[in-house]
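debug: dumping io for the single-chain case to check the tokenizer round-trip. Nothing else runs in this session.
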Amino acid sequence: LLTTISIERCLSVLCPIWCRSHRPKHLSAVISGLLWCLSLLLNMLGYVLCTVRPSARSCHLLLITIGALDFLFCTPLMLLFSLTLFLRVKCSSQKLRTGRLFIVIMLTVLFFLIFAVPLSILILFDFLGYKFLYSPEIGFVLSCVNSTLNPVIYFLVGSYRDRRIKFTLRLAFQRAFED
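debug: decoded output
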């Protein structure tokens, strides 16, 4: 989802007229639904191949495929489009307004790289046969930290302009996504 959000946000900044006039209205909802279905399918397949009907070769192949898809396809795309967006907004001669959504996306991508990517790298290398002294539990803890940081980012970015945090969490989320 972070990859598709990065791509969509980048396209809306680079090609705003095309996005407003030619982009299908429900494209984001359809793509998000397809990604959720793909994730559900891969997780169900993993559950069946690795737990219910264990097949070491099939399970191993599926986990390598998921790791490669995550690390070699989604993460580089997310980085490419996020970096493109960042450079376009910061180096523009037109001084585009950087909204809260831009800050949320950049912080989310940054924390994803710091906390979630190490686990993906470890899992991929582990299944390829490379062993490290690095404990997988540390990778899982970092991944959990990444997941818990996202609501904190939304809350802090949503409450940033008021300089006070004496309002509801709902209002913070609403302000973070109003852009």
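debug: round-trip ok. Helices lie at 2-14, 16-21, 27-52, 56-90, 100-127, 136-159, 169-177.
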